[in-house]
Amino acid sequence: MQNTCIGASRVIEGRGVRCRRPVDTFGDRCHDHEGQDPEEAVEALEPDTVLVKGNLNPNWVKRFLQAGTYRSERSPMRERAQDKKGLAQAEELGRSPFAYRGKPDSGTAVLGKNGANNVSIAGILDELEERYGAPAIHILQKTKGPRSRRTAVKNTLVLSFNRDSDEEPASEEILQLARKFFGANSWGFTHIWANPYSDEGEILHTVNLGRRQPDQEPEGEVQFAEGLWKIS
């Protein structure tokens, strides 16, 4: 796992883009940000919205749908539009859009290109709910093929934490099911993205999880750390 500089670049009205440069220890700054005040860095980088995502197998999809979770679709067209936006934003910020993977990105992989392995996120769910309120929850279904013959290729459970959101919070039944799903002992792969501010000046962070391991003891625990994120 790699630590990333906690400094902020392109600060506008106190909001900035998380630096991409690697550092040796959590909380360190790269040579460009060594003189930045720590308190200002924390304030600049705390997100307005946090998305927590985990891929669902068919059994979990069925359980969430039975509990009343709604499902939205991301078509190939929407996927291409998202890639185009990421490419344009990376170029605007003077960043390499393919620094991490073949898909264009404008944000910062907080834990580095390879993320973290075998960690728990159980602790951050309560903290995020305390900070942002109960999340909205839905299943995001990615599809392929033409509209008339479109087939699902992946179902992802998405928790959206945003204190100013107009979305309806999930019911207690769905929320408890989500806690059970995400509260697995550990996750094989964890990637955290600190994305640049939107056109409205808001910052979105995303926690992407893969390979749910209910019987695997975790080797670390994800901590929110006021939006700076670390593994303890």
Task: Give a written overview of the molecule.
- By secondary structure, this protein is of the alpha+beta class.
- The protein contains 5 helices and 14 strands.
- The protein has a 7-stranded mixed beta sheet. Strands 8-13-14 form a 3-stranded mixed beta sheet. A two-stranded antiparallel sheet has the order 1-4.
- The N and C termini lie close together (12 Å).
Ordered list of secondary-structure elements with their pairings:
Layout: E1 3-4, E2 8-12, E3 15-18, E4 22-23, H1 38-45, E5 49-55, H2 58-66, E6 70-74, H3 76-92, E7 108-109, E8 119-120, H4 122-132, E9 136-144, E10 151-162, H5 172-182, E11 186-194, E12 204-213, E13 220-223, E14 230-231
Parallel strand pairs: 5-12, 6-9, 8-13
Antiparallel strand pairs: 1-4, 2-3, 5-10, 7-11, 9-10, 11-12, 13-14
Concise overview:
With 232 residues, the protein is of the alpha+beta class. It has five helices and 14 strands.
Relative helix content: 10-25%
The whole-number mean of residue pLDDT values reads: 87
**Elements, N to C (H/E):** EEEEHEHEHEEHEEHEEEE
Oligomer: single chain
Q: What share of the residues does DSSP label as strand, in percent?
A: 25-35%
Number of strands: 14
Distance between the termini: 12 Å
Largest sheet: 7 strands, mixed
Morphology: globular
| Tally of contiguous helical segments | 5
Low-pLDDT stretches = none
> Which strand order do you get reading across the main beta sheet?
6-9-10-5-12-11-7
Could you tell me the radius of gyration in angstroms? 18 Å
Structural class: alpha+beta
